[in-house]
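Q&A log
Question type: sequence-to-structure
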Amino acid sequence: MSSYFSIYLFLFLSLLHSSIYSQRVQRSLQETPNSAVSATTTTTTTTISNAYNALKEDNRVNAILASNLTLSELDTNISTPSGFYTFLFSRPPFRTRPMSIISKSYESDDPIITYCSTISVKQDPTLQKLSENTIKNAPMAMMLGAPEVLQFGQNLIRLTHAKRALDIGTFTGASALAWALALPANGEVISMDINHENLKRYGKEFIDSKPEVSKKINFKLGPAVQTLDSLIAAGESGKWDFAFIDADKINYPNYYEKCVQLLRPGGVILIDN
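Response status: OK
Response body:
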């Protein structure tokens, strides 16, 4: 859902800017009734107001804009950089939803989400087959990483020229395969989980069908904390480029702290949910 958050945040801030700008222009017109006002300014104000009102009719935009602050209060709060960041990070910009009703893109029937996923996500055929098999047959299939999340991680790997990746939470192996596909020929993935049954039943055959990719992956069975500790003890600190955390939520702080030790300066940690 992180990719949708970025889109919604961008839209939210754009709407705030537009509405506040419109208010300031209208206030200026009221305060200076005898001054000459250009047609361009009037047209711009009208356009912004019309666009803002039209967007407000979309229920999803209303959900994003839900706040107990008035526009005048928003104007005051975000008029300075410090005020803007205080407002942005001291309160949720939209209503949060319980985890029980948060769904992955492959579970959604929202036509906009379906369209965005179809147009923007270009999965490797083998990864797509593994994901489809997981969704169709695996228990608790919603543990599968969403395709846009995996593609985002692949893009981060390529952008940072990563060669070594840590994958915390194997499940059926989709994320491990995604990272291996993005890494260079001499790349390495260590994927860790306390149970490999789902991997064996629903993912391993697809991964093994691409030997040039599967050779990059080392699946570790056991608690991820122990695997990470063993890497630190072996002198691997600062030698890894990328880490993906998508496992038991209670251990996220532990996973994060250990990944910080293992990653090089400039390394990237991607955390799902």
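Response note: The longest strand covers residues 263-271.
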